[in-house]
Design brief:
This protein is of the alpha+beta class. The chain contains 2 helices and 5 strands.
């Protein structure tokens, strides 16, 4: 009976041993796969975070560029209208001649300011054009109202 049971017992024991070895190998491989998966997830999370940071920087740069271009376009639309004339004040025996310069700012065709008026007493033989250039408030090249094309007057008829 020992000769019959002993081979059966050895077969069952070796089967159990093979099952435990196979089970431990599968657990080791599963642990390796989980480790690889965790590393991959970490790398993806780091890459996503880096992408979000670079995306925020790109969006911020695009917003700043858009704001700067909008501001530049706004400033390009601002015009200065200028007119000047000479005024002569006569008091008894004294006559005083002065240059009056008026300027105002426009955005397209909308006036942004009232007329700003400057008056300077003229000496005999003074260069009017140079005085006008020196007296201007705005640094930007001005549009002289005298140089503007004449508009057609509507005639009621």
């Amino acid at each position: 009976m020992l000769w019959v049971l002993l081979p059966g017992f050895v077969a069952v024991a070796s089967g159990l041993l093979a099952w435990f070895v196979t089970q431990s190998r599968m657990e080791v491989r599963l642990a390796e796969q989980r480790e690889t998966l965790a590393e991959t997830r970490g790398a993806i999370a780091a890459e996503r975070q880096a992408l979000e940071i670079s995306m925020r920087a790109a969006v911020r740069a695009a917003e700043e560029t858009a704001k700067r271009e909008a501001f530049d376009n706004f400033l390009a639309e601002i015009k200065v209208e200028q007119r000047h004339y000479t005024r002569e004040n006569r008091m008894l025996m004294n006559s005083r001649k002065s240059l009056v310069l008026q300027e105002r700012m426009y955005f397209r065709n909308i006036p942004l300011s009232d007329w700003i008026e400057h008056e300077i007493v003229l000496d005999d033989g003074a260069d009017l054009e140079r005085l006008v250039r020196d007296m201007t408030v705005f640094d930007k090249p001005v549009v002289n109202i005298a140089d503007a094309p004449k508009r057609k007057q509507l005639v009621a008829g």
